[in-house]
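Intended use. Records like the one below are meant for learning the mapping from a protein sequence to its folded structure. Do not use them to infer anything beyond what is encoded.
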Amino acid sequence: MKSMMETFEAAALEAGKAILAIHRCGPTTRYKADCSPVTEADERAEEIILAHLAGAFPEILVVAEESVAAGRIPSVAGRPFILLDPLDGTKEFVNHHDDFTVNIALIEEGRPVAGIVYAPAKNIAY
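Structure written out for the chain above:
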């Protein structure tokens, strides 16, 4: 089994490729109930990452931005969970700027203990 960080990295890189393909073509934007923008890049990236996480860590709950916006909110009280923002900086993405990231983190006892922040347009990962 891959390590958690290897899984996070593979998921972020694959999601980043999908995000960049949509970025080049120009995304279609709509707005969530909180008036924040969402694009097909947000949704596709989340699908990719969730598939990676389900395959590697089916026992760990995932709190994912677009899933939560759709009303799927898991109860994580007292449990470790993975926090996922598949495309942080959607406003910058929509405006054709390069300042957007893919964020994945393991949260234990309310604190991030492992994670990746990947800026696909800059090809930089932390």
